[in-house]
Amino acid sequence: MEQSNEPTDPSETVPSKIWHRNLVALWIGLFLTSMGFSGMMPFLSLYINTMGDFSRSQVSLYSGLAFSASFIVAAVVSPLWGSLADRYGRRVMLLRASLGMSICVFLMGTVNNVWMLIGLRFIQGAFSGYMPNSNALLAIQVPKSQSGKALGILSTGGVSGSLFGPLVGGVLASIFSYRITFFITGALMLGVFFVTLFFVQEKFKPVTKEANLNTAAVIQELPHPQLIFGMFITTMIIQASNMSISPILSLYVKEIMQNSPTVTFFSGVVAAVPGIATLIAAPKFGSLGDRIGSQKVMIFGFLLAIVLFIPMAFVTNVWELIALRFLLGVSNACMLPAVQAILAKSTPAAVTGRIFSWNQSFQAIGNFTGPLIGSLVSSIFDYSGVFLSTAGLVLINLCLVVHQARKQF
């Protein structure tokens, strides 16, 4: 089997000041990318409604297609980009993703019918990959003993961008217009391209097509393939769990508050508080994972999530829900960063791009299936049933991880 020309542990040859600067630049890139993605969500359906005389059901259908299109395509194309990343380098893939997304978002402001918008959302999904390539690039440069902390800090860039995105997008749309907001968002993503171009460094020796490992060879390179694929499933279930309550969250707040005129404000607060907690806690739990083991931190996160989802189904006022959602952000800080750290510590440098791109595919599947699960459960049972079913989903994930840990160790 031919080996990659990359060193076994590039972190040994990357000066600290370089990977620290890369961490800052990639954090900014993830922040702006996530803010751009989430910033479109508050007015996407309203934008669609301006493109024709649609019924409520048609707007709902088109909005669902536009929302899910990028996730579906990302799940399919991510392995291809991962293979190219291992062959040509992760920095090239970061530049490709940021420039492609910038062009797609800018063009969304020029469309005049809904199918053009949905088509551009599909294309945007095809140009995805900034997050997994950021993780992969940093993972091979940071010493393994510090990877949990570094990847935990990096994850806060995406979390904080997603947190501020809807607020920024809503403000821009109200001050300007939907179309101009797309132009501004496209310009921000173009800024990501230039930040990556000028500030992200990677020493990478291109690998020939013949030397690039195929899928079977990549799996053979993994010292613990079952652990890696277990983390893929874990990523998918974590995302599905987080997204399953998205379709009903504001409706649940409305029911709890009995149609209070402040429902919109408190719905925003309820949606935002987990991100605030994750932003604060992720670096701390990343450091803890480096000391005691990322799997232990992740298992604690699962247990905490189960304990929190169950009482969410029975809250009687919005403040109880806010408190539980804040603590849920702490559990999120234990889970996804821990997965990234385990992947970083368990993956040879030659196939890091492939592994993180496969993980993104499973994350995209979770993003797509989670809202479907939540909508289905709420239609059969009620809003409380979504929280209970989500707790069950997390429990299944916990059992899988514990079983895997016992087999592994």
Automatic annotation (TrEMBL):
GO CC annotation: plasma membrane
Family annotation (Pfam families): MFS_1 (PF07690), Sugar_tr (PF00083)
Regions crossing the membrane: 24-47, 59-81, 93-118, 151-176, 182-200, 227-253, 265-285, 297-316, 322-343, 387-405
Phylogenetic lineage: Bacteria, Bacillati, Bacillota, Bacilli, Lactobacillales
Organism: Fructilactobacillus florum 8D
Bilayer disposition of the protein: Multi-pass membrane protein
Cell compartments where the protein resides: Cell membrane
Keyword set includes Ligase: no
Name recorded for this polypeptide: Multidrug-efflux transporter, major facilitator superfamily (MFS)
GO molecular function, a single term: transmembrane transporter activity
Keywords: Cell membrane, Membrane, Transmembrane, Transmembrane helix, Transport
Keyword Transmembrane helix: yes
Domain Major facilitator superfamily (MFS) profile: 22-409
